[in-house]
Design goal:
single chain; alpha/beta; DNA polymerase, domain 1; TIM Barrel; 2 domains; 11 helices; binds S-adenosyl-L-homocysteine
């Protein structure tokens, strides 16, 4: 049960699925149907306190407070990009950590990007989230609460969720899967798996495990290089997980779920944006049912990378297209507000002399 807790204290009630909540309530001598009522308050009505639960008796509310905790997030800062309606939020967890989440408006609806860990230990050389290492995993309840908070703050129904903020979701796999199951739960927000994307740096065994669970979500792989030699220079995880192994796990995922894979490729000037890289990437992906998302790198001040020139970005895209590979250049939402992974959190912590530990 460790995954339902932040420490050895009371279980966080928002991290419990309906079945677990029912079992715990029954063990307390309560009627099983109460679990449904409480679950609805937490996951449909986005309650932040037991006191809001008007159809629950005072006596039961007191028992719930004794037995469980409710880990809320507090919005400590937000920035709005008035040009495109993107909001970036910094939330404080109840133990004083800072995480970031993003709200985005698209033609087809509202989408949020959430974090899966406080910090990250994957060490990608271009990414701000990993600079202070991983502080801790987020619970499934804290992942859900990011979605619920933004829905509440914006007063808008969220239709898409991407797990692409700080952290490596497959390094926090049990909490991620619990989160996914509750987010898609008909008794909760009931978001379709098709509208959920999870991004990983390529943790092979977890890609296979996800495939076995037949989750109908979109899997995004952070590839960023067409061969292991270059990939190892920018992503330490490449020392453990080869591109060949990742590709075979992706093929397995496609076989089991029928879901097309997205490959993310952050373009860094003079590092991975050459004509040769584009050709090598084309050869790697040719014939695969996939999509490539080119992301002009968002320069991080602590890091030494710069954005590829527009002409190089276009050349890269054209080479992939010539090889009949689906490719888009990511719409740079939130450019004006430090929207790259972990940048806002870092600048906030510096400003507040926060260590995050
Ligand atoms: N750990 C997961 C998810 C978080 S990062 C993963 O590796 O996929 C989400 C995406 O943004 C990843 O593709 C990541 O490599 C990319 N990214 C991180 N920092 C970036 C930056 N400064 N510029 C462009 N892309 C970045």
């Amino acid at each position: 049960m460790d995954m339902d807790k932040i420490s050895d204290e009371k279980p966080d009630i928002r991290s419990l699925n309906l079945e677990k909540l029912k079992a715990l309530l029954e063990a307390m001598g309560e009627k099983g149907f109460r679990a449904g009522q409480i679950y609805e308050w937490l996951h449909k009505k986005e309650a932040q306190s037991f006191d809001e639960m008007t159809n629950i008796s005072q006596g039961l509310k007191e028992k719930l407070k004794d037995r469980f905790c409710l880990k809320n997030l507090e919005a400590v800062k937000y920035l709005e990009d008035s040009e495109d309606g993107t909001f970036k939020y910094l939330f404080a967890t109840d133990d004083g950590n800072i995480i970031e989440s993003v709200f985005m408006s698209y033609e087809h609806g509202y989408s949020v990007c959430i974090s899966s860990q406080v910090g990250c230990r994957m060490g990608c050389s271009f990414c701000a989230s990993t600079i202070g290492g991983r502080v801790r995993d987020l619970t499934s309840g804290e992942m859900l609460e990011q979605v619920y908070m933004m829905q509440r703050l914006q007063g808008k129904r969220i239709s898409n969720v991407v797990v692409m903020g700080s952290g490596e979701p497959f390094d926090n796999f049990d909490n991620f899967t619990a989160f996914y199951e509750m987010l898609t739960d008909k008794d909760g927000l009931n978001i379709s798996g098709r509208n959920i994307t999870v991004s990983t740096c390529g943790i092979i065994d977890k890609i296979r495990e996800l495939a076995d669970r037949k989750y109908a979500l979109t899997l995004a792989i952070s590839l960023h290089a067409p061969n292991d030699t270059l990939r190892k220079k920018i992503m330490p995880s490449a020392n453990k997980y080869s591109i060949e192994g990742i590709m075979s796990a992706c093929d397995y995922f496609f076989e089991r779920t029928g879901r097309r894979i997205t490959f993310e490729y952050s373009l860094m000037a003079g590092v991975n944006d050459s004509e040769e890289c584009a050709k090598e990437l084309s050869n790697l992906l040719k014939g695969r049912n996939c999509h490539v998302n080119l992301i002009p790198v968002n320069p991080v001040k602590e890091r030494d990378y710069s954005r590829s020139r527009d002409t190089d970005i276009i050349r890269f895209k054209k080479i992939l297209e010539k090889n009949k590979i689906n490719v888009t250049i990511r719409r740079g939402l939130g450019k004006n507000i430090d929207a790259a992974c972990g940048q806002l959190r870092r600048s906030y912590m510096e400003e507040k002399k926060f260590t995050g530990k």
